[in-house]
Amino acid sequence: MTKQKKDKTPVQRLLVPSYILAVGKILTTISPFLASRFAAKLFLTPFKYKLPKREQKMDREALQEKLTLPHFQREIVVYHYGNSPKKILLAHGWSGRGTQLAVMAEELLKAGYSTISFDAPAHGKAPGKMSMMPHFIEAIEVLEKRYGPFEAIIGHSLGGMASLKAISDGLSVNKLVIIGTANSVTRITKEFAGNMKMNDKVAAKMKSYFDNKFGVDMDSLSGAVSAEGVKIPTLVVHDEDDVDVRINSAYEIHEKLENSQILITQGQGHRRILGNTEVINRIIQFLSV
């Protein structure tokens, strides 16, 4: 697959084996209910991949420790990078890890900050096979209590959604940066189902299953809903060519934030944007004002 085609293919489609897609398509035809349970398990299972070269220095040099989330009793791995008292919390996205924002972390160190990041349950080096957004939210809250105060939180994708929710629930931080962050959970399930060769009927059943499983309307965790309770300065960063999280999410979240700026890029997609020099410089400028 060419680099151009890869950039235009959702990561779920890239990482899921073709036989899994075939099973999902067959189950959709036979039983949308069974297909929705199959999709739900896939949805909650992070993809595993080899540590990229760009993340190896941070992985090698960061002080690492294990920490158990008290409510969910799930283990995370915490990364301490740098020694500055001006600390930034980095929250990775789905199937990411604590070193996912390594390029950005290096530049933050040069700018006088240190970073704390984490492997969410079932991500990176953290044990487990399945994870969910409430794990990310608790991790952010626990790390703030243990290692805060933070100058800011920088959250990518699901890490951005979790950060919005934690701050709207009362977490204290000076500034927030969200990158490639989705808005509607319903839309996420529809796009996921589509990527898995399933349809909207399966997506609706999957969303209903999650609502019942977690005892909450999952749309209450949507980015724009949480954004209404976020009053701190926020920078919304998104790429027009992001095929994993569509650009309209950025505008919908930006509209609900009380004090926000928006940075729209082109040609960076959902993942490469994290290492873009112009984006990183803009983030550091936003943090320093």
Describe the overall structure:
Helices cover 45% and strands 17% of the residues. The protein is an alpha/beta fold and 289 residues long. The protein has a domain at 67-184 and 217-288: Rossmann fold (3-Layer(aba) Sandwich), CATH 3.40.50. It has an eight-stranded mixed sheet, with helices on both faces. β7 (234-239), α12 (248-256) and β8 form a beta-alpha-beta unit. α5 packs across α6. It starts with a helix and ends with a helix. The model has no long low-confidence stretch (mean pLDDT 91).
Summarize the SSE layout with pairings.
Elements: H1 3-7, H2 11-15, H3 18-30, H4 32-43, H5 53-61, E1 63-69, E2 74-81, E3 87-91, H6 102-110, E4 114-119, H7 133-147, E5 152-156, H8 158-168, E6 175-179, H9 185-195, H10 200-214, H11 223-227, E7 234-239, H12 248-256, E8 260-265, H13 277-288
Features:
289 residues, alpha/beta, Rossmann fold, eight-stranded mixed β-sheet, 13 helices, 45% helix, globular
Relevant CATH superfamily of the domain at 67-184 and 217-288: Alpha/Beta hydrolase fold, catalytic domain
CATH architectural type of the domain at 67-184 and 217-288: 3-Layer(aba) Sandwich
Number of DSSP strand runs: 8
Shape label: globular
pLDDT under 50 segments (min length 5)?
none
Alpha-beta classification: alpha/beta
Strand content: 15-25%
- Side by side, the strands of the main sheet go 1-2-4-3-5-6-7-8
Helical content band: 40-55%
Mean pLDDT across residues? 91
Order of helices and strands: HHHHHEEEHEHEHEHHHEHEH
What summary fits the major beta sheet? 8 strands, mixed
Number of helices: 13
Task: Please tell me how large the radius of gyration is.
Answer: 18 Å
* CATH domain fold name of the domain at 67-184 and 217-288: Rossmann fold
* N-C termini distance: 42 Å
**What is the CATH first-level class name of the domain at 67-184 and 217-288?**
Alpha Beta
